[in-house]
Amino acid sequence: MNAAEHSNVDVSVQNLSWQQVIFRVILIFLVWRCSLFLFDFLSLSLSSERTNNSNKDWQAYPGRYFFDGFFRWDGGWYTRIAERGYFFMDGKSSGVQSNVAFYPLYPYLSRYLGYVVGGHHLAGWLISNISCMFGLAYVYRIGAKILDTHSAERACILLLLFPTSLFFSAYYTEGLYLFLSAASAYYFLEKRYVTCGLLGMFAMLCRSSGMTLFVAFGCVLVWRLIKHKEKFRWEMFSIGLIPFGLLIFMLILHSQVSDPFAFVKIQATWGRSQTLPFSTLYNAFLEIDWSFPRQEGHVIHLVDLFFTLSCLVTCLVMWRRDYPGILIWMVLLGVLVPVSTGTLMSMTRYILVLFPAFIVLSDLCQNRVWLERFLFYMFSFFLCMFSLRYMNWFWAG
């Protein structure tokens, strides 16, 4: 059954109120969050922290290891932005990793909300979790609009069980970006282009992948106009607001480090450079360690490659099942753009916010209980593994 056929199955979807959606989403979220809290608490009591950790140069909650466990890795860069703004770690514009690579919306929101709740770390944690719930509500609405309410609910569950969903509660941008990108896509599907553009602009201020929204929306609009599937309206130009998010970021960098392009120049310190996606995938395959026991981190690299290829296959499934073009473009560009940087590092985390892929997975589970159970078990297993690794200062994406 394709997406077009699904849309005629559940006629009550259009009458589903926002209150009903939010109530269902909150229940799903609370079950997930409480279960993961319990696992993290018990597993941290039975495991030990990574030793000889050169990355541990700061702590959000010293002496409170469990609570501090939500503030690892990139959380340090966001902490520096929230506390000091943008600066170069060595006082120069190249050669050393610096916080200029990270976009400003999340750390600055954390800073100013922190004045109210008593600290930017707590504020960031609240922003991540609350934004995730609102993002799930929009994912639910999109899934119900394309398929049906049951499939939409399953898509939200699959999203929360995905191995890197732990970042929805970490001091990271995933929760906020999910909300902004899903909301922007929802209003694009509703043809409310001004709202879509404004939300897309904030998504662009959140992380670099916001630009893929602009390209995806633009391509679909041009296609609709050429095929006369929609009449031209001046309101369509509102999607042009999205790149203004990047412009604002560049102005902030110009003001604070005197280089509006610092976020591009610093990428080389993370081993990123422009290359063809195929070359990145081919090199990633060659670099995998197939021996056992494996070296530290190689399992994560294998998982990154697996889910990257799976996402590309998902694009073909979406095209064959007649999904809205905007959702196909979001997944395709969401994979190809980071893969074009020459490394698959963090790809499993980047895929986390590509919510259309989880709507497709939910669709494929329709009348396939075995597939649904397999995905639930597999995702849950890797989620537990990734969560424990992250909280003990091992790399998890």
Question: What is the CA-CA span between the terminal residues?
Answer: 35 Å
Poorly predicted ranges: 7-12
Number of helices: 18
- Rg, alpha carbons: 21 Å
Secondary-structure content class: mainly alpha
Report the sheet with the most strands, covering strand number, pairing sense and barrel closure. Answer: none
Total strands: 0
Sum up the overall morphology in one term: globular
- Please indicate the percent range of residues in DSSP E strands (runs of 2 or more): under 5%
Overall average pLDDT: 88
What does this protein look like?
The chain is mainly alpha-helical and 397 residues long. The protein has a domain at 3-40 and 62-260 and 369-391. The chain is 64% helix and 0% strand. The two termini are 35 Å apart. Mean pLDDT is 88; it is low at 7-12.
List the helices and strands and how they pair.
Layout: H1 3-6, H2 18-45, H3 65-68, H4 75-84, H5 105-117, H6 120-146, H7 149-161, H8 174-189, H9 193-206, H10 210-226, H11 242-257, H12 262-265, H13 277-287, H14 298-320, H15 325-339, H16 347-352, H17 355-364, H18 369-391
Helix pairs in contact: 2-6, 2-7, 2-18, 4-5, 5-6, 6-7, 6-8, 7-17, 8-9, 9-10, 9-11, 10-15, 14-15
